[in-house]
Design a protein that fits this description.
GO molecular function: kinase activity
Oligomer: single chain
Keywords: Kinase, Membrane, Transferase, Transmembrane, Transmembrane helix, Two-component regulatory system
Structural class: alpha+beta
InterPro entries: DUF5931 (IPR045975), HATPase_C_sf (IPR036890), HATPase_dom (IPR003594), Sensor_HK_TwoCompSys (IPR050482)
Number of strands: 7
Transmembrane segments: 25-44, 50-67, 79-98, 104-123, 158-175
Strand content: 5-15%
Organism: Umezawaea tangerina
Largest sheet: 5 strands, mixed
Number of helices: 14
Number of domains: 2
Order of helices and strands: HHHHHHHHHHEHEEHEEHHEE
Length: 385
């Protein structure tokens, strides 16, 4: 992930969990030094000293390799962590061959001792809490197989290994989510600043011209009045577009329905939305916006040239309700079924079909001279089916 920032801060954020990898490298080096000291202290009592020192030599080389790999973003690969786990378990398995039975019974530390915890921490930093806990569990199982007996100390070590991997994994997942949110916030900030700049430019130019055309056309009357009405509609639509907040998406793929509906406002369409965000899965917000567009298109086509429409968005917690009402002549009884029979599928497919896909409900209230009101109700639980 690459995030640009100002001159006072870091220019690029290479990896949101880089600090965890630096800690993993430090842990690898420190635990190797501990293992080296452990072998030096107990070497005279080993059955095969040469094997113990050979294991230490391999550990030194592998520590150098993993230190180099984990210090670079390109080296933090699943195969490296998996190989680290395998090498650690293999080297640990050589302990019974180098140590005496008396040393094993006396709970003398294995050759690898706490050096073997490295893969659990690395797995957590790479793939999250479950991978870290699983790696810790594998190392704990290998420890048990080499000890050959269960003890309180062994159970404690297994719990600590799995817990360390789990905690580091939680930290890595949190850091990655925070980095994504930071990148999103920076993009939103940049988009908002650009929108404000454009809004000032449009207000000083295009909107003033449209307002002038509308005013002058209404004064002249006739065909100029028709042009004035069109200019007024475009002025309202442009003001709504400039005033609407940019559509945002979250890490979980949700977006705010408010701005998507706010830009539908015109001189004949009034849109009312909550002051707070109405977050929905992006696909649900997109389909709901398409439904409202289709309904407003029907108002424009069938409700008459002077008809007005009102769009109301309500967030009821577990469900979201969108109401679209107009003051047109209403829909005659049976007209929707007749239109569907004639092959005109606007309501059947574009409206009913979309709402059914979202798992929502659609209600219609209309009558001669009473206008038309649609109510779309979509539940947050369930989503697109």
């Amino acid at each position: 992930m690459h995030i640009k920032s100002d001159a006072e801060g870091p220019s690029v954020l290479e990896d949101p969990v880089a600090h965890l990898w630096r800690g993993t490298v430090a842990l690898r080096v420190v635990t190797f030094l501990f293992a080296l000291g452990n072998v030096a202290v107990h070497a005279t009592g080993y059955e095969r000293q040469w094997l113990a020192w050979a294991v230490i030599g391999v550990m030194a080389g592998w520590t150098a390799f993993t230190t180099r790999a984990y210090s670079r973003e390109s080296g933090r690969q699943p195969w490296v962590v998996l190989a680290d786990l395998v090498v650690s378990c293999v080297l640990m398995s050589l302990s019974p061959l180098a140590m005496t039975d008396l040393q094993l019974l006396a709970n003398v530390p294995l050759l690898t001792t706490i050096w073997a915890c490295g893969p659990a921490v690395a797995a957590g930093a790479l793939a999250g809490r479950y991978a870290g806990a699983a790696s810790g569990g594998v190392i704990g199982l290998c420890t048990y197989l080499n000890r050959g007996a269960m003890s309180v100390d062994l159970v404690r070590d297994v719990v600590l290994l799995a817990g360390a991997g789990f905690v580091v994994g939680m930290a890595s997942s949190t850091a990655r989510r925070s980095a994504v949110r930071l990148a999103q916030a920076l993009r939103t900030e940049a988009a908002t600043a650009e929108r404000e700049r454009l809004a000032r430019s449009i207000h000083d130019g295009v909107l003033q011209v449209l307002a002038r055309v509308r005013k002058r056309g209404m004064e002249l009357g006739g065909e100029a009045a028709e042009l004035a009405e069109l200019a007024g509609e475009q002025e309202v639509a442009l003001r709504s577009l400039v005033a609407a907040s940019p559509v945002e998406s979250t890490v979980d793929g949700e977006s705010d329905l408010n701005p998507a509906l706010q830009i539908l406002a015109t001189q004949k369409v009034q849109v009312s939305t909550p002051a707070t965000q109405v977050m929905l899965p992006a696909v649900v917000a997109l389909e709901l916006t398409a439904v409202v567009r289709e309904m407003l298109s029907n108002v424009d086509k069938h409700a008459g040239p002077g008809a007005k429409a009102w769009v109301l968005l309500e967030d009821l917690g577990e469900q979201v309700v969108v109401s679209i009402r107009d003051d047109g002549p209403g829909i005659p009884e049976g007209r929707i079924d007749d239109a569907e029979a004639e092959g005109r599928m606007g309501i059947a497919k574009s409206i009913r079909g979309r709402v059914a896909l979202l798992g929502g409900t659609l209600e219609l209230q209309t009558g001669p001279g009473e206008g038309t009101e649609w109510e779309v109700r979509v539940f947050r639980v369930g989503g697109v089916r």
